[in-house]
Write a structure and sequence with these properties.
single chain; 415 residues; eight-stranded mixed β-sheet; 7 helices; 30% strand
Length: 415
């Protein structure tokens, strides 16, 4: 059975969407140190929504009882209640947030004070408390809970893809939601079958591609931005996700909670679609030039270490093939990889826009050749994630009909 530890920082849920655990408590989670993932023991943080005031902060231990602790653990997604409770100011050094975190992250706020809940309380309305956000407590009085956790009730409830500042998309960083936690998925170990299952869980029928987020260009804004990850305290919470062949849902898969040192750059990025239409792959890169004034196709020379970059792509469904221009790129990674793909290991090739190379020198595909042979851009974007990358690792966008960056802005390289 597919299980893991899933909760989130309230701010991340407010941005990306989440699941209300109890009436008027938008979300509740436990925090210790700088982490809010994989935790069943820590300082309790709640986001409380009321008719006239919304606030995220700690819960004061005034009038705290075992019944109240059970309610608060249930609000944080731990259905079996609490194992023990205490406060920031008493022991629990490894299981509490620091006073700096209390002030800098949570604004030094208490969301609830004088909270008294009866046995079996399921929602905040069942309890008594001061007005939301009203408190006379200090950091040391923040409630620390150790909740009863068991693995068999921690299933993922939804999979969503986000890009930019939290926009849902068909391609983006994979975000997992569960009854307790929200966070990212490690890319390591994910294969085609697993990625296909994730696409279906996210509401799409087909997989297009997948990769670690570090290989996805930030310029394209097709992944969750670093600012969003940092300010919303989002982290990798699950790793080693594996779905056996013929899996149809996450319930058929297995995974483990992420290690605390998991690198956010290795989170999973996924591209899905509901359209089984044209799908293109890169098939070749070459450098080309011709003698100005000679415009027959046989006049085009390729295979040298200089020239206009020509890209070839193929439609995997229709078999259609296209060869043409790609725009100039400032990416040193991409320029190096272009040369490497074409058999040259020059890490720092000499790049130019074709408009900077005069036709008279016969070092590029001339304007006359482009016009005579109706050569067009086949890509509007090409990016490779590092030096000396293979063609299959590079990301691209097929140029739509009518697209042109201007013939003088096509890519030229001397490898």
């Amino acid at each position: 059975m597919f299980t893991q530890l899933l909760t989130t920082a309230a701010t991340a849920l407010l941005l990306l969407g989440g699941h209300t655990q109890a009436a008027n408590i938008y979300t509740a989670f436990l925090a210790a140190g700088n982490s809010t993932t994989g935790i069943s023991w820590g300082t309790l943080v709640v986001a409380v929504l009321s008719s006239n005031y919304n606030v995220m902060g700690l819960v004061c231990d005034d009038h705290m009882t075992n019944d109240t602790a059970d309610f608060l653990c249930r609000a944080a997604g731990f259905e079996d209640g609490h194992e023990l409770w205490g406060r920031n100011g008493v022991n629990f050094t490894e299981h509490r947030i620091s006073i700096e975190t209390f002030v800098n992250v949570y604004g030094g706020r208490f969301a609830l004070d004088d909270l008294i809940c009866p046995p079996g309380a399921r929602q905040l309305e069942d309890c008594q408390h001061r007005a939301v956000g009203s408190s006379d407590c200090n950091y040391a009085e923040g409630v620390v809970l150790k909740c009863k956790a068991k693995d068999d009730d921690l299933d993922v409830t939804s999979v969503l893809l986000y890009k930019g500042n939290g926009t849902r998309s068909s391609n983006g960083t994979v975000v997992l939601y569960g009854r307790r936690r929200m966070g990212l998925l490690g890319a390591e170990g994910v294969d085609d079958t697993t990625a296909e299952v994730l696409c279906r869980e996210a509401g799409f029928r087909y997989l297009v591609s997948y990769n670690a987020t570090k290989y996805v260009s930030s310029r394209a804004r097709d992944k969750l931005s670093c600012d969003t990850i940092q300010t919303q305290n989002v982290s990798v919470i699950l790793q080693d996700l594996h779905c056996p062949t013929n899996s149809t849902a996450l319930g058929n898969c297995s995974a483990t909670p992420a290690r605390g040192d998991w690198d956010i750059d290795n989170a999973l990025w996924l591209s899905c679609t509901n359209d089984r239409g044209p799908e293109w792959v890169l098939t070749n890169l070459t450098l080309a030039h011709n003698v100005a004034g000679h415009h027959e196709r046989r006049d085009l020379e390729t295979g040298n270490d200089y020239g206009t970059v020509l890209v070839s792509i193929k439609n995997t469904f229709t078999g259609e093939e296209r060869t043409g221009l790609t725009p100039y790129t400032t990416s040193a990674y991409t320029r190096s990889s272009m040369c490497y793909i074409m058999g040259n290991s020059n890490k720092y090739p000499q790049p130019h826009r074709t408009g900077e190379i005069d036709d008279i020198y016969n070092l590029k595909v001339s304007c006359g050749y482009i016009v005579a042979n109706e050569m067009r851009y086949v890509l509007s974007y090409l990016w490779c994630p590092g030096y000396y990358q293979k063609l299959s690792t590079c990301q691209f966008r097929v140029a739509h009909e009518g697209y042109s960056a201007g013939n003088d802005n096509a890519m030229w390289l001397a490898c």
